[in-house]
Request: fold
Amino acid sequence: MELIIATGNKGKVREYKDIFEPLGFQVFSQKEMNIDLDVEETGTTFEENALLKAKAVYDLTGKCVISDDSGLQVEALHGEPGIYSARYKGLETEHERRLAVLEGLKDSENRRARFICCICLIDEAGVPHLFKGIWNGTIAEKEEGDEGFGYDPIFISEDSNGKTTASLPISFKETFSHRAKAVKALTDYLKEEHAYDKE
Reply:
């Protein structure tokens, strides 16, 4: 069974390939399928944006598509960056966006935060299915680590023994993260439905 990952984010593509290829799926990025598409994320929730991106690729290909929308919610910043995590404050680089979060918390003792991931699977019949994962933690005082991407260098998950996600092996994130939890819900669904021949 072929799966198209509706994203241009190389980090996400790598994570999804690591997760789904051992299950017998053929996983392709948009680029590998020659899909040149940049969907405007006009939704007001992670669920709406995930569906928008998956539907755009499905409408072009008619193939099974997975898309996700994910982001960091910081309690003291009233849930920001939230759905704007990838374009927070209009900043260009991941490093600048991380610094903006750290700057926003410089006078706050509350550093509680969580990552949220919503995955949308559109099956070959065109039916969408939504799966959600939440990863609780705190924001570090400074950037640390070279693994992962996005806000990983400033996020300390509740199960990481005080280390940032970027300070730990990619395998840790692939096992415990918000995306891993949403993916588990998705794979549990696929196994339960017996919807796909993975041979």
Notes: The first strand starts at residue 2 and ends at 5. Helices lie at 10-20, 46-61, 94-104, 170-176, 178-193. The mean pLDDT is 91. The longest helix spans residues 46-61.
